[in-house]
């Protein structure tokens, strides 16, 4: 029985491939720096490489059985599938950041730039604060630097991007890591294979909390 897996391209794939390899899954073909998107040479596991924001689309439509993607995407998009395993890799966190002169206590309605509008909206709603969200596709750090927004809600991993752009963290929201999500129907139809994969990954994922 073949399991079809959508892997979020980029950092997620780079960090997950060693885990898959350690779990005994031959995914050597994915390690090469090529523009290939579909890998079917392993009869047990077929892989497709998709943009992180598209992983749930493939999963929701049943095109793949499993999606491997950051919890940032899962929190932003919401989903009806089974979030089965925290792979404890790809760790980063959501933060509220801005230029050092930003005053979070100011009563003026804030302009917040982010790649995660739903998550940012929820965060401020929970704080009882009404803000205006500006959806940005990337390099969110530019928004407060150019004056387009008062602050950003974004993810940070090493902190390098914030540091090199003289931005300061004003609040830490939630932690983020890579998760394995399973399509509901696939879990019924391919249960043994899926549980075997989960068990193998559980043994090789980073063990710390
Ligand atoms: C993410 C995030 C930050 C950066 C943080 O962007 O939006 O810009 O990584 O990482 P760091 O703390 O290790 O510096 P990404 O690299 O995905 O690029 P993008 O902004 O173009 O989407």
Automatic annotation (TrEMBL):
UniProt cross-references to Pfam families, sorted A to Z: HisG
Catalytic activity line of the entry: 1-(5-phospho-beta-D-ribosyl)-ATP + diphosphate = 5-phospho-alpha-D-ribose 1-diphosphate + ATP
Subcellular localization: Cytoplasm
Residues forming coiled coils: none
Group of enzyme by EC: transferase
Zinc-finger listed as a keyword: no
EC code(s) of this entry: 2.4.2.17
CDD domains: PBP2_HisGs
Biological process per Gene Ontology, one example term: L-histidine biosynthetic process
Keyword Nucleotide-binding: yes
All residue ranges annotated as the ATP phosphoribosyltransferase catalytic domain in the record: 51-202
Chief subcellular location: cytoplasm
Cellular component terms (Gene Ontology): cytoplasm
Pathway: Amino-acid biosynthesis; L-histidine biosynthesis; L-histidine from 5-phospho-alpha-D-ribose 1-diphosphate: step 1/9
Molecular functions (GO terms): ATP binding; ATP phosphoribosyltransferase activity
Record-linked InterPro entries: ATP_PRibTrfase_cat (IPR013820), ATP_PRibTrfase_CS (IPR018198), ATP_PRibTrfase_HisG (IPR001348), ATP_PRibTrfase_HisG_short (IPR024893)
Family: Belongs to the ATP phosphoribosyltransferase family. Short subfamily.
Function as written in the Swiss-Prot or TrEMBL entry: Catalyzes the condensation of ATP and 5-phosphoribose 1-diphosphate to form N'-(5'-phosphoribosyl)-ATP (PR-ATP). Has a crucial role in the pathway because the rate of histidine biosynthesis seems to be controlled primarily by regulation of HisG enzymatic activity.
Quaternary state and interactors: Heteromultimer composed of HisG and HisZ subunits.
Domain remark text: Lacks the C-terminal regulatory region which is replaced by HisZ.
This protein's name: ATP phosphoribosyltransferase
Species whose genome carries this gene: Lacticaseibacillus rhamnosus (Lactobacillus rhamnosus)
Lineage: Bacteria, Bacillati, Bacillota, Bacilli, Lactobacillales
């Amino acid at each position: 029985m073949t399991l079809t897996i959508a892997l979020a391209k980029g950092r997620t794939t780079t960090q997950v491939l060693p885990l898959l390899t350690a779990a005994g899954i031959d995914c050597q073909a994915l390690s090469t720096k090529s523009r290939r998107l579909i890998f079917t040479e392993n009869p047990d596991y077929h892989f497709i490489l998709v943009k992180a924001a598209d992983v749930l689309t493939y999963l929701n439509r049943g095109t793949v059985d499993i999606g491997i993607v950051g919890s940032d995407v899962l929190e932003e998009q919401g989903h009806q599938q089974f979030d089965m395993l925290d792979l404890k890799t790809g760790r980063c966190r959501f933060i509220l950041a801005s230029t050092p002169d930003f005053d979070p206590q100011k009563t003026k309605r804030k302009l917040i730039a982010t790649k995660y509008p739903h998550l940012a909206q929820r965060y401020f709603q929970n704080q009882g604060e009404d803000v205006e969200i500006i959806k940005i596709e990337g390099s969110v750090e530019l928004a407060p630097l150019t004056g387009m927004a008062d602050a950003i809600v974004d993810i940070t991993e090493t902190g390098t991007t914030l540091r090199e752009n003289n931005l300061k963290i004003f609040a830490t929201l939630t932690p983020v890591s890579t998760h394995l999500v399973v399509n509901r129907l696939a879990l019924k139809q391919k249960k043994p294979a899926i549980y075997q994969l989960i068990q193998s990954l559980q043994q090789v994922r980073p063990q710390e909390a």
